[in-house]
Amino acid sequence: MSESTDLQFGLHAVLSVLESDPKRVRDIIILKDRKDQRIQKVIDAARQNAIKIRFQPRADFERLLKNIDIPDARHQGVIAQCTALEILDEGDLETLLHGLQEPALLVVLDGVTDPHNLGAVLRTADAAGAHAVIAPKDKSATLNATAIKVACGAAEKVPFIQVTNLARTLKYLQQSGVWIIGTAGEATQNLHQAKLTGAMALVMGAEGDGMRRLTRETCDELVFIPMKGSVSSLNVSVATGVCLFEVVRQRGLATTA
Asked: Where are the domains of the chain?
């Protein structure tokens, strides 16, 4: 694991890491003179884990926030300085697959660069019971403070795997018995018509551009999400949720049949 530092900010994000992985937290910085029930929960959790707490004036807060890549960071009066989350690679993917006791459910992001979307996908993946989220190392969002905050605790629970060559990774998954299903507006098969009960990787492309050509050509099957309104596409995190919970629905029916 990298020894670099992540800044996590906001009450929910800080409480999540204190509850799920307190050993990562180096110290907690709280806006001086803030006193309310929600901030007290952070203070209590930190003290229970013997984590140092520092109370600082707003000027020091703003100085810390300059290290975060968005100008409107909502710190809500609390920041946690943490050991950076571990980002996994191809070797970890192989280990994960070999250790599964149920059909694999993986989410693959091809060209998704917005950390807000990555965080939202991680949160949805956790809710749906997905085993990992996979993305290429280049030209893709990574686990920065924004993604971790949006994930609301899911970044600590769902493995995030960055791979050097996405097409090669998809072919490895195919050789491992994982069916690759891509989502594309030009697909001829409805999402609800596809069989989603076996081991599978769901590939989601970027908004606008969708999947890259080589990624699309590597997929075993392409599906589209049926829509009745005037919009032609959904936000990638919303589309991921629609697809994942169709998987959950079908697998639930299969186990009760």
From this structure: 5-83, 90-256
Give the total residue count for the chain. 257
Residue closest to 162 by CA, chosen among 129, 192, 139: 139
**Other CB atoms closer than 10 Å to residue 78's CB: what's the count?**
24
The type of residue at 185 is G
Which pTM does this prediction carry? Answer: 0.83
pLDDT digits (tens, 9 = 90+) for 132-141: 999 999 989 9
Highest mean pLDDT among 19-33, 95-109, 242-256: 95-109
Q: Could you give the CA distance from residue 113 to residue 58 in angstroms, rounded to a whole number?
A: 31
Given CATH 3.40.50.2300, say whether it is the number of domain 5-83. no
CB-based contacts of 239: which residues, under 8 Å, 6+ apart? Answer: 183, 204, 225, 233
CB 125 within 8 A of CB 201: no
pLDDT tens-place string over residues 63-102 = 777 765 544 567 788 988 888 888 899 999 999 999 999 9
Amino acid at 49: N
Q: In the chain, at which residue ranges do the beta strands (DSSP E only) sit?
A: 5-9, 25-31, 52-56, 78-83, 105-110, 132-136, 160-163, 179-183, 189-190, 200-205, 221-224
Return the CATH superfamily for domain 90-256: SPOUT methyltransferase, trefoil knot domain (3.40.1280.10)
Cα(195)–Cα(251) distance, integer angstroms: 10
Q: Give residue 67's pLDDT.
A: 63
Alpha carbons 88 and 102: distance in angstroms, whole number: 21
39, 66 contact by CB (below 8 A): no
